[in-house]
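TICKET: design request
STATUS: open
ATTACHED STRUCTURE:
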């Protein structure tokens, strides 16, 4: 599984950093201990990106994606992977 902080930053085009700053500021102003950024990231991702930590469901693949996944798992890549022959 990916690091929750990095995943939150990637999925939100770094907007998560603003959320985290707001959480940390509120905690500081209230005199509370700062939370673990990964815990804040998990809560954020669970709220705004449900299923972020799950493997993709193969039933949701297009035919081309399913074919590519099957070929890749069998050791066959694409021209982009190996260069043209």
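STATUS: resolved
RESOLUTION: sequence designed for all positions
ATTACHED SEQUENCE:
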């Amino acid at each position: 599984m990916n690091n929750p902080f990095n995943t939150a930053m990637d999925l939100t085009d770094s907007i998560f950093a603003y959320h985290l700053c707001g959480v940390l500021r509120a905690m500081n102003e209230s005199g509370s201990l700062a939370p673990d950024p990964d815990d804040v990231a998990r809560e954020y991702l669970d709220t705004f990106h449900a299923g972020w930590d799950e493997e993709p469901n193969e039933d949701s693949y297009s035919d081309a994606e399913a074919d590519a996944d099957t070929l890749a798992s069998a050791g066959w890549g694409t021209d982009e992977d190996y260069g043209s022959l």
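CLOSING REMARK: Residues 68 and 74 are 10 Å apart (CA to CA). The chain has one domain: 4-80.
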